[in-house]
Input
Amino acid sequence: MKIINEDEKEGIVEVVPETLDDLWHLSHIIEVGDNASSKTTRRIQDNTGDKLRSDRGVKKTFYLGLDIESISFHLFTGKLRLTGVITKGPEDLIPLGSHHTLEVKLNTPLKITKPRWPKWAIKRLNQAIEASKKLSAIIVVLEDDTATLGLMRQFGIEYYGPIRGHVSGKRIVDKNRQKNIIQFYEKVIESVTKFDSIQNIIIAGPGFVKNDFFDYLKDKHQELAKISIIEPTGSGGRNGISEVLKKGTVEKLTSENRVALEMGAINNLLAEIGRNSSKIAYGVKETKNAINLGAVSRLLILDTRVAGDNMGDAMDMVENMKGEVMVISSEHEGGKQLESLGGMAAVLRYQIN
Output
């Protein structure tokens, strides 16, 4: 995510989302009542006399602003939609005051205007920018004694390689074959570990080399194996990397990692509730009371509560008291469990009555 314009006095921040994670962050930063503006495409009725065009309308792209009434983000499809009343746009094409849904697009500027930017929102924005510096995944495509790496950067794919070994074919008698295989694998591993902050490794390619390489990781490099998965492809090299990208594997893994973190927090909360812990509050009334008393060590809040209940001041209060705020997605089982508890809960510093 990039910030391309910031006007603190007017409450305006203009950003360019670059990844699906950026859209997820924005779905929690944007609130009901904010104003958002960006390029959009809308089907406009055609009055040229062409009956077919008149019935179907003509697609037009223009700049549009709206006051947001609802926010919708679908985790696994990666669609962020903002629905509200149109406040800005070409009046010859659209009536101001009518409703429209703006789909936030990757690599397209989005201007967000708030009456006041709360601290938690600024922090979330900075987290998204910091996350963009990390390497979300490396795709390792193996074929015989050749490996090609695809580095998932924010701007797209950076190719690295090919990395070549000296492994003879199975039909050739070579007493050093196994030794050469290990040297090749270590050469690939050395190339992979040059990069910092790797979140996922996708081991891909045709045939069984990818499986043998994964087995080698599990035996000799267990930490790497823990963040690795196997993805079959019909081709090697850059074509194999393209196959992995088309399958959406990288986006799915990013979502799964985030879900795992959130599920862990919810499971810990439920375990404390199961033990009848006196340092837990859940439900809207009890949690807000704990926030007002400054007793919250960690606040777990459902994303729909953030968007719909204008919880910015309460979240700021928690962070001002050195507490942690964790927004939980409503799209997985952990979110549904939190919803059943009222949509928010807190781990407390001390017992309250």
The first helix runs from residue 20 to 29.
